[in-house]
Amino acid sequence: MSTAYAAPLSFSLTEADALAQKAARGAGLGWGMAEEAGFAVRWLCGYGADGLGALLACLAAQRSMPHLAPGQVIGQGQGLLCPLHTGSVLLDSAEISDGPLAGPLQVAPLCQPLLMLPFLAQAASVLGQQLVVAYKAGTVALPGPAPLPVAPSALCGALRLGLGAPLGPEWRGPTARVPQGRAACDAATLAALELLALKTTVPATEASRRSGAGAGTNDND
Amino acid sequence: MTQPHSQPATPRSYYRSPAQVMRLARMGSAHPMRLSFLRILLRRMRQENWRFERHLWQVDARGVGRAVYCAHGPKRSYSLVAFAHDLPDHMRSDRVIATAWDATFALFDGVPSRQDLDRLQQNVPLQEAGRIGPRELTLSRANRSVRLFTHVVGALAAGRQPDATELQEVGYLMRTTAVYGAGKFGAADRADIAQRPEMAAPFQAEMLTVWLIRWFTVDIVNHLATQQGGAQAVALAPELCRQLGVGNSTGLGMAPFLVRHPVLLNNWIFAREEALARVRALPMATPQQLAGLRAALADAEENASSWRSSHPVQVEKLASLRADLACIRCLSADEQASFRINGALPLGQLRQIVAQHYAWALRTDFSDPAQMARFWYVSEEKLEPRLGDRHAEPGADQEQPLAIAHLVQALWADLQAQPETLPLARFLLAHPQHRLVVRRVLRAPSHPFAEVQDNLIADTMLPIDLMRCKLAFFGASHFDPRSDKWVRISLFRGMPYPTDLAQGAPA
What we know:
The structure holds two protein chains of two kinds.
Chain A: E1 9-12, H1 13-26, H2 31-46, H3 51-60, E2 63-69, E3 72-76, E4 80-81, H4 83-92, E5 105-107, H5 117-127, E6 129-135, E7 138-142, E8 159-166, E9 182-185, H6 187-198, E10 201-202, H7 206-211
Parallel strand pairs in A: 2-4, 3-5
Antiparallel strand pairs in A: 1-9, 2-3, 5-8, 6-7, 6-8
Helix pairs in contact in A: 1-2, 1-3, 1-6, 2-3, 4-5
Chain B: H1 18-21, H2 24-27, H3 37-47, E1 51-59, E2 65-72, E3 77-84, E4 103-109, H4 114-123, E5 136-144, H5 146-157, H6 164-170, E6 172-180, H7 190-193, H8 204-229, H9 238-243, E7 245-250, H10 257-260, H11 262-280, H12 287-305, H13 312-328, H14 347-357, H15 359-363, E8 374-379, E9 385-389, H16 404-415, H17 424-430, H18 435-443, H19 463-474, E10 477-483, E11 486-491, H20 498-502
Parallel strand pairs in B: 6-7
Antiparallel strand pairs in B: 1-2, 2-3, 3-4, 4-5, 5-6, 7-11, 8-9, 10-11
Helix pairs in contact in B: 3-8, 5-8, 12-13
């Protein structure tokens, strides 16, 4: 991605997804979790939220891993709960009949809680029922039409999750509606994510330059 | 495309198994066919009576300027915006790392205004270093085949047709070195256009781009010949035009695509195998159908006889491909729909899936250094996929996850000590490193053709086999392998031009 353009930079969702995956991997996440980061960022950008900014802040912070206890998710280790690992395990568990989403769930404070919402929205689609996130000053029910009806900062602190109303058919199942749109972020965020993404690459050596992509011959033919 | 046979059931014995089909050596022998994406495009445009026009031609005596070609369908129009450049020979490189080209292109959604053209002029010639937007569907560039281009312009300027043998030998006036679509460099996302019937099949925007580029390549030689020869110049004869396709020069960058898009790969192969099985199951064929088959075979033989390579391994390969021919005398995917991991699955069932669908992977002996010889990585310098030598080069710690067999074995080892009934979600919470391969394994039962059933890091692995499979699905003909990692192909050779299609020529 070129950094030659002035803010705000506009990207396709595919680009945002790809950059998020590379940056997450560059920051040390496993490849599969990096794919989840791409999914979450694409979803948030489609909803008009700053998914790339949230991911960068998340990757820069020390985060604790989720531990599932009856009725609650708590952190293991230093820092706030990782929203990607927490979101992933909750979505993975959606179809477990006595799993964490079967009843009310208390979730310890998250680092960049915005990043957990895409997983909850998808879990709700699987369950066919809204998931209601209760935070300090209100509630948000997922999934719903864009834009997201909650400011990212409002989600700080402990959250409570519970099941809500049944979903209409357009929000159910693996092909449930996901808003399309464009992704945006500022130049500094882009540069920082690209720097992380670069950590997934390998510097050239003389040998690798020689073997290259396989073309050794002149192209003026 | 996960429901196997919705048509009247074809007996199972007519189907080929994934173990037979999904081998690199076989994929590397793929041929273009009726389901190839460029043929799908041409069939649709003919059936729907698309109209085509050269909307704008502002090119100067040196061949520098811009042009617009429009394709008008029943509902929408698409326009190829072409920028012609004057490129010094020393800057001509087919590598993706090049920074200047003989011509650069974008496919515009609709008909561009003057403002659109000015915006594109600021960006398209820069390719990767520029930005396009949601109104653009593709970004691409092409270089001249210097030898043929010069010969053709010279002949036409002197008032005669170029040598048909020369034309036959090269097969194209220009070759593209990249055609980017699907959201790259700011272009419209695939999801934005996937609902349109004319864009539903894979790579239709890319194929349309290349087809319109073919038109441009003929116009630019005619233009330059007129500039050089004045009243004496003649236009390239239609029968010679027809022999020309658009070249494409493809390196290692394309190889990982099929591994990264297992659902798409499954659907392509599935559609081909389904078609093949239905044909094989027919009790009899009419004389017309037999004549059609013989004509297609003759075309394939003629096509194969024209492939050229000076690379020893590939020379042998081409000979055996020709021998193959002598002996015989639903395609898109919503990848997001199969992205989610169902973590309720008990590990006992996951183990069964691995045992049943990945026996080929579990058989590989990775303690043998030859089976671990390579690693796929992305180069920092070019941001392109590369293949390294694990035992001699640094960088294996940044290996890309393309060695599926190896990843499956690592998963298999960690699954052994786990209780049968433990839900997958719990296992992944403790072993997040297996998340990528678990996602693939879960798709296997409904997508039997999703995996290339070979070790992609073995010392014997030839990346060109992956490239060839994908290119055959595109509809590429005329494979000229330059090495085991680099191939030149031709698209649309022998096929109609937009102007022919309007006159009812067969696609």
